[in-house]
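<instruction>
Derive structure tokens from the sequence
<data>
Labelled lines for chain and fold:
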Amino acid sequence: MNAYTRNQGTEVISRDKMQDKRARLAGFAARISGMILLIFLAIATQMHLRVEIERMNKRATEIRAEISLLNVQCTNLRNRKEKLTSWRDIQAKIQHYKLGLREAEHNQIAYITLDPPRAVRKTLRPVQKTAGRRMTKRGRQEYAQTSR
């Protein structure tokens, strides 16, 4: 081979090697920047989730405080209701306002009569099997009479 051809071939090969090197370097840089981007996104997501968790925990604490306050109010209302409906309090109000008992009007009175309860006769009619067969009618009658 002559020197010109050799130099020309060498130059082409060296250019290919340089372009190949640049392409590998660009690919490597793209991979590294992609990994850095993913790491950044993971850290940003983790920070965002921590902020949201803290916000939710704060809200949960506020709700627990509201629930305990409502429980106290319910207990107070229940105690007040029991006090107001007690006979001692009602009697005190009757005496304070001088309400006294009065006779009922005739249209307020209703009479109810109850009939005496009727005697219900329960008859026992068991089904017995004797030696794999049902009892006859006569056998059932005898059993019913003895069990009364």
Q: What stands out?
A: The first strand starts at residue 129 and ends at 130. Residues 3-84 form the longest helix (82 residues). The beta strands are 129-130, 133-134. The chain has three helices and two strands.
